[in-house]
C-alpha cells in the first residue's frame, strides 16, 4: 500500500511539473515571433531551442526544490510546488521583458534569428538564474 501511495504522490508532482513546463513553453512561444514548434523542430533554430531549454531547466529547478522542501505534507507540497513554479515563470517573464527594454531591437525577434546570437545565452542565463533564485528561497 505504501508503494501505491508513493507512486500516486510522485504522479501528482509529475503532473504539476509537466503542467508548469507547458506554461513555460507557452510563455516562450508568446515571447518569440512565429510558432515555437516550427522554429525548433522544422527550422532547427538553435537560438529558440536554447531559450526554451533554459526556461524548462529553470522550472525544473523550482519544482525539484519545492518537492524536496515539502516532504512532510503532500497537499501543502503540491500547492507550494504550483505556487513557486508559477512565481518562477512570472519572474522569468519579467526578467525577459526588462532585458528586452534595455537592449537594442526586439529581443524575441533577435532570439529566433537563424544564425547563433549571443543574446540567447544572456537570456538563457536569466531563466536559469531566476529558477535558482526561487529554488533558494524555497529552502
Write a structural description.
- This protein has 6 helices and no strands.
- The protein is mostly helical and 139 residues long.
- It has one domain (2-138).
- Helix 3 (46-69) packs parallel to helix 6.
- It is elongated, with a radius of gyration of 16 Å.
- The two termini are 30 Å apart.
- The relative contact order is 0.17.
- The mean pLDDT is 92.
How many alpha or pi helices? 6
The percent range for strand residues is under 5%
Helix content: over 70%
The biggest beta sheet reads: none
Structural class per helix/strand content?
A: mainly alpha
The run of helices and strands is: HHHHHH
Number of DSSP strand runs = 0
For the record, the count of structural domains works out to 1
- Amino-to-carboxy terminus distance: 30 Å
* Average pLDDT: 92
Low-confidence stretches: none
Multimerization status: single chain
Query: Which term fits the overall shape?
Result: elongated
Rg, rounded, reads 16 Å
Throw out a few tags for this protein.
139 residues; mainly alpha
Give a quick rundown of the structure.
This protein has helices spanning 2-31, 36-42, 46-69, 74-102, 107-110, 119-138. The protein is mainly alpha-helical and 139 residues long. The protein has one domain.
